[in-house]
Amino acid sequence: MEQPNGPALRAIGTTAAEFERDLVSNLYFERGTTMESASAQDVYQSLAVTVRDRLVDRRARTATAHQAANPRCVYYLSAEYMLGRQLRQNLQYTGTEEVARDVLKGLGVSLDEIADFDVEPSLGNGGLGRLAACLLDALATADIPAVGYGIRYDLGLFRQAIVDGAQVERPDDWAFDGSPWEFPQQDDRQAVGFYGRVEVEAGRRRWIPEETVLGEPSHMLVPGYGTQTVNIVRLWRARADSDAFNLADFAAGRSAEAVQEVLRSENISKVLYPADSTEFGRELRLKQQYFLVSCSLWDIVRRFHLRNSDWTVFADKTVIQLNDTHPALAVPELMRLLVDEYELDWDTAWSITRRTFAYTCHTLLPEALETWPVALFERLLPRHLEIVYAINQTHLDEVESRFPGDGDLRRRLSLIQEEPERRIRMAHLAVVGSHAVNGVAELHSRLLAETTLADFARLWPERFRNVTNGVSPRRFLRLANPRLAALISERLGGEGWLTDLDQLRGLAALAGDSEFQRRWRVVKRDNKLDLAAYVRAATGVVLDPDALCDVHVKRFHEYKRQLLKLLHVITLHDRLRADPGADVPRTVVFAGKAAPSYHAVKRIIQLINGVAKVVNADPAVAGRLTVVFLPDYNVTRAELIVPAADLSEQISLAGKEASGTGNMKLALNGAVTVGTLDGANIELRDRVGADNFFLFGVDAACAAEVRRGDYRPGEIAGSDPELAAALAAIADGRYGAGFGDVLDTLLGRDEYLTLADYRAYLDAQDAAAAAWRDPARWTAMSIRNTAHCGFFSADRTVADYRDRIWHADPVPVPPR
Ligand code: OAK
């Protein structure tokens, strides 16, 4: 985008008069209406455009500054982005929230009501997608030139409804009413090939695809906070050629046949796959991955050529971060472009490729490590298969020269898995093609190097590093929890902490200050009232704002152990029926989605709802224990729940959660964690202090040991009367008939050691309840959690990537 100049452009101002003029003008020219006859949707759309215009101006200056500086750019490739709602963010980042509120009020409209029309683009499953959004926010805030590339799914992650206690998935047509934050760029379409054959032309191999789909980009603006930089996230949508529609078929009444080709092409970006950490080997998914990679690399090369002509500097100007393995096809695709299209020799191309890519791994679960059947790969991407084979050959030659005669090692390090069928190992491809590989928390990075990627860590130890995740304090404190943000700013004397989160340390001195504590508690209580109002409207359940708000909110997965939390709830219910003082008044909030095909955890959702129904209807525990399952967890819901939480459940089996970022968001908002020594919990506990964290459970080494040994969950159940009673309650059908399958998994293999950790978990919960009984003690713990969370800012994460992987310098954008 060029810097606008000349008198034709009207000034973009921030005064109330300018804002009102633009709003009314947008209403008139964009929506064709006036304030008198505008619908709320009209006002929302015009307001969004008015705010967006303020960012467009910054974006234009950002592009100009980048063009002039010709810097090293960070390209973030991710199949998922969970950006969250944009309106409030952009109002704040442009400093126009108050102006907008006043202007709307003057026009007789409430900003809060209008803001509810803002739709969150849920283009991701969970942690990995939200991390991508937090990193983009921090990149722009740090003035680092960056573009996020992704797929513009027509349907985002399914909307979750609960019907008769069970999860029902509904399509999320997020842009149905129009999406004012997007800039579609139809004229920048890019052709992507599939299938076909490889031909030799003048001694060079060249792919002749059989099918072509168009990738149409649209971008959304990613503003930095407290800076002029506006980066972009560029999302690709699949389009068929305009002559793909078969008029003859249509005229003959064969309407389904007429659109067949259009559908086949456009299906590529139709839906986000809702499989989270499970293998999903379908052709369409591989097509999606190649579609993303092909469009994005074409765009990256185009950008490079805007400012450079010499390939030898490509890796000095470009770093491509692979967000897990979904975009790992970028490695052979860049090789194909360099060797086949730009005719570089193989070794030069390989050196450029390796210097360009870096790879972040987000899991340890073996079932989440992607592999693709060679047969499918060969059919869809015949030239890429040749390139993968060639990369593998050079790679295995290196292995052989370093570790001669070690056939087992060669087999383990090969990009190709041979048994039970030949498959391409995408994590291997990403490691081999990258100069840096990182895990997302210290424990995770260590376990990656010791287990999952141990052979590679032995081969290239210098490539492996850790970059602990972080979250955006702008979104998860300033936007989500304005009351707490205001109190913090008041006490710290300004908003500097928003971009320098370590400043929160200044709150530690106030942890024991009774007046500060009182105000801290008022904020929490007000946030709980907001949550209670929402919960009541959504579910009919009434929450007590004075009860301990105990939250287990995240994707559903057996390793995250929602079931352990539920066993605790069942035991509490039993105890409270016998003794009303057995626990503190408590509200347990569950929220999260289960992959539609993940039957075992969908059953756990049903069981939670069954338990909630029984507990909430029992007068014997009224006012003591309330259980709610809040449907459709997403970024927007998180922004409501996180500020209200007192107790943060981070209870995954040690060694399974790569990092977790909900743990950080909750602690930042003053929730105290009850957690295992897993993922980033360990670093969180180190920072907030062992006294301000309820630790329990086996550690990762011990968990592995237990799993290897003779673990007998049945014996644990038999020797613990409270546990036996909880299991019996599930078995007797009071929460709904037929939860035998859930019991069988627990009493059979109990893969995630739920029963092994049950007693320690209950003890930790009792300790939490004892602390809650003393409000001064609890509030001090809560304040200390916030005070020591500075490390978990995404700004620190980005600074780590910048210094240790990207080596990208900031490019400040001058103000107008
Ligand atoms: C999704 C698909 C494949 C592999 C990993 C994921 C994923 O979402 N992983 C999650 O990434 C988060 C961000 O790094 C971590 O905090 C979570 O622990 C991890 O499960």
From TrEMBL:
Catalyzed chemical reaction(s): [(1->4)-alpha-D-glucosyl](n) + phosphate = [(1->4)-alpha-D-glucosyl](n-1) + alpha-D-glucose 1-phosphate
Transferase found in the keyword field: yes
Pfam families, alphabetized: Phosphorylase (PF00343)
A GO term from the CC aspect: cytoplasm
Modification N6-(pyridoxal phosphate)lysine, positions: K665
Cofactor(s), by name: pyridoxal 5'-phosphate
PROSITE patterns xref list: PHOSPHORYLASE
CDD domains associated with the record: GT35_Glycogen_Phosphorylase (cd04300)
One BP annotation, GO: glycogen catabolic process
One MF term in the entry's GO annotations: glycogen phosphorylase activity
EC number, as in UniProt: 2.4.1.1
UniProt enzyme class: transferase
UniProt KW Hydrolase keyword: no
Keywords in alphabetical order: Carbohydrate metabolism, Glycosyltransferase, Pyridoxal phosphate, Transferase
Function as written in the Swiss-Prot or TrEMBL entry: Phosphorylase is an important allosteric enzyme in carbohydrate metabolism. Enzymes from different sources differ in their regulatory mechanisms and in their natural substrates. However, all known phosphorylases share catalytic and structural properties.
Family: Belongs to the glycogen phosphorylase family.
Name recorded for this polypeptide: Alpha-1,4 glucan phosphorylase
